[in-house]
Amino acid sequence: MRGFCWGDLSLFLIQYYCGLVKLFIEQIFCDTIDMQDIHELKREFLEHLEVEKGRSFNTIANYERYLNRFFDNTGVSHPENITDAVVRRYRLWLNRK
Question: pTM higher than 0.70 for the full model?
Answer without folding.
Answer: no
